[in-house]
Amino acid sequence: MKQQSRSLIIGATGQIGRQMLSRLGDHALPTTRAADLIPGWLPLDLAAIATADDAERVLASVPLHAIFCLAGMTNVEACEDQQALATRVNTEAPGALAVVAARRGIPFVYFSTEYVFDGMGGPYLEEDDAHPLSVYGSSKWRGELAVREACPDALILRTTVVYGLDRERKNFVYGLMRKLAAGETMRVPNDQVSTPTYNVDLATVTQTLVERGASGIFHVCGPELLSRLEFARRVAEELGLDASLIEGVSTTALGQRAPRPLDAGLRIDKLRSLHPDLTMHTVAESFDDLRSALREQGVAG
Ligand SMILES: NC(=O)C1=CN([C@@H]2O[C@H](COP(=O)(O)OP(=O)(O)OC[C@H]3O[C@@H](n4cnc5c(N)ncnc54)[C@H](OP(=O)(O)O)[C@@H]3O)[C@@H](O)[C@H]2O)C=CC1
Ligand SMILES: Cc1cn([C@H]2C[C@H](O)[C@@H](COP(=O)(O)OP(=O)(O)O[C@H]3O[C@@H](C)C(=O)[C@@H](O)[C@H]3O)O2)c(=O)[nH]c1=O
């Protein structure tokens, strides 16, 4: 029987990958490194893909109509110590997979980050100069360049501080909820300014942009410019948690190894002007949608 052509979701176990998967349903072919645990998924390890030949081998005889590259080495601190792996996973493998997409004439979507900027003049537009501060940011910026070179029609989506329901319960909001619900203090940087992004909006916009044949770089993030401290306080307020347990500190005091862009955030003027029907929700609006689901998951009171 002829195999049906599907959209490859690389990184389908991740926060954003899960959202894409639930949207695309049977039209998606998810990948994971732990393939034996999930029947029907394609085994794919970005660390094993260095060249277009490697990518062709992995995808040989797999009919596809789009490739979404959501997988990445996303632990910003760990990237500082594992530069070679970060380069392979975030730069070289996406570039190699983009070659396959270009050869097949199918859409390729690469997820990038606000961390391509240095945070000295945000919020940023798509055409602003990149100047990453960290190994992670640099690997993603070089990933963008590799993807664009391999597949000039690729769609590159830059986002940041993505939150929402996450089966792995890994994003910032979960960390905050766990601490506050346990009555523990959370130290949060008061000098990292960004534009937090609801993962449902991000997945909806991604799907729509691909359906509309968009290409090039788009910033896709929430509409509010907030420090982590302000964001954390709003989340606490939305969930009825004790915001007095949130302690604002400088990034320096937090002692993170990877430098973060401070005065950052992304501007979505381009998205708004070319696709005015697409809405990125505020924190308050997204929590109206999210609150009950978080409670069902048993992580919020
Ligand atoms: N979350 C955020 O705030 C932001 C995310 N992004 C970008 O969006 C993308 C998705 O992020 P998010 O969903 O949050 O990520 P997660 O950290 O939730 O998930 C990472 C995914 O990458 C996969 N992965 C990691 N290493 C490899 C590898 N060597 N080979 C194959 N798959 C691998 C994991 O799969 P496995 O199950 O096999 O471990 C997992 O599915 C990333 O590219 C990230 O850089 C950009 C800006 C902000
Ligand atoms: C350990 C610790 C961290 N933090 C903060 C610092 C840091 O800003 C944040 C770490 O959580 P995050 O994972 O959201 O932060 P970070 O890994 O810096 O976030 C990034 O993720 C990657 C994938 C991106 O591409 C970025 O755009 C951004 O969203 O939490 C605290 O506030 N208190 C703490 O006790």
From TrEMBL:
Q: Which UniProt keywords apply?
A: NADP, Oxidoreductase
Pathway field: Carbohydrate biosynthesis; dTDP-L-rhamnose biosynthesis
Q: Does the keyword Kinase apply?
A: no
Q: What class of enzyme is it?
A: oxidoreductase
Reactions catalysed, as given in the entry: dTDP-beta-L-rhamnose + NADP(+) = dTDP-4-dehydro-beta-L-rhamnose + NADPH + H(+)
Please give the CDD domains that the UniProt record associates with this protein.
Answer: dTDP_HR_like_SDR_e
RmlD-like substrate binding domain: residues covered: 8-274
One Gene Ontology term of the biological-process aspect is: dTDP-rhamnose biosynthetic process
Q: Name one GO molecular function term.
A: dTDP-4-dehydrorhamnose reductase activity
User: What GO terms fall under cellular component here?
Assistant: cytosol
Functionally, this protein is described as follows: Catalyzes the reduction of dTDP-6-deoxy-L-lyxo-4-hexulose to yield dTDP-L-rhamnose.
This one is known as dTDP-4-dehydrorhamnose reductase
